[in-house]
Amino acid sequence: MKAYVDQHAGMAVDGWSAAWTFDLDHWGTCGQGPDDDAALADLATRCGLGTDALDAGTLKVVERVDRARSGDETVFDRDRVPASEAEREATLGILDRMRARTLELVRDAPARVLAYRDPDRVLPVYAWWHTVGQLALHIADTESRYYLPLLGLPARERANDLVTELEQSGAHVRRVVSQMAPDLASASDQHGSWTSVKVLRRLAWHERGELDVLERLVEAAAVEKQG
Questions:
Q1: What confidence tens digit (pLDDT) does each residue in 93-115 have?
Q2: In which region does residue 93 sit, left (phi positive, over 0), alpha (psi from -120 to 50) or beta (all else)?
C-alpha cells in the first residue's frame, strides 16, 4: 500500500507528522505521530497492516511534503489528480455513517455531558473545541465553513441548536459533494493549496477521527457522574 507523508502537519498536535493513503479500501485514513516513522506506524495499524509494515514492504512511502518549508496546508501530487466517482462515493458513504454516530451521541446528551471537558486532553494552540458540545460543533464548522469554501463551494450559516446544525450541515455537505467538479483547485497565502481530492479525503477523515475523541469524552463524562 502506498503512503504519503505530510511532515510537520501539526493536525492533532503541533509539529506532528501525518501519513495518508489514497487506497480506496482505507479512504480517508490518516496516521499521526511526533515524527514520520510514528505517523507511518499509526497509519499501518489503522489499516490493519501491523507495525512492521514498512520493514515488510507492505507499506511504501511514495511522496513526502514538508509543511514547515511550504507553509500552511499543502497538497501531494496525488491530490492534483481529478477525483474519481469511486472516491466521491466512498466519501459520501463515510459521511453518512459517521454523522449517524455523531447524532446518536449528541441528540440525547444532557447539558452536563455536552459541557464535559477533559483537562488532560492535548489540543493545538488554536483549538477552541474543548467540550463535548464544542467538539461536535467543530465537526460541522470544519465541513461547512472551512473545507467547502476553500474551493469556492457554498458555505452555510450555523443553525441555532447543535442537533439541527449537525443534521443540516451533514445534508448540505453531502449535497455539495455530490455535485462538486472533480478537478477544482485553489491556493492562497492564508490557507495553502486545496483540490477536489484533498477536500474529499479530509472530509472522509475528519469526523471519523473526531468521533473517536467524542466517544471517549462522553464515556468519561458518564464515569465522572458515577464517581
A1: 999 999 999 999 999 899 999 99
A2: alpha
Q: Return the sign of the alpha-carbon dihedral for residues 42, 48, 52, 56.
A: negative
Q: What is the Cα–Cα distance from 170 to 158, expressed in whole angstroms?
A: 12
Query: What is the rounded CA–CA span in Å between residue 174 and residue 223?
Result: 35
Grid cell 502506498 — which residue? Answer: 2
Domain locations in the chain?
A: 2-71, 80-226
CA-closest candidate to residue 30, choices 203, 218, 151: 203
pLDDT digit string, tens, across residues 153-205: 999 999 999 999 999 999 999 999 999 999 999 998 888 899 999 999 999 99
Cβ neighbours for 172, distance < 8 A, ≥ 6 positions apart: 144, 154, 156
Considering the domain 80-226, what is its CATH architecture? Up-down Bundle (1.20)
C-beta of residue 202 within 8 angstroms of C-beta of residue 212: no
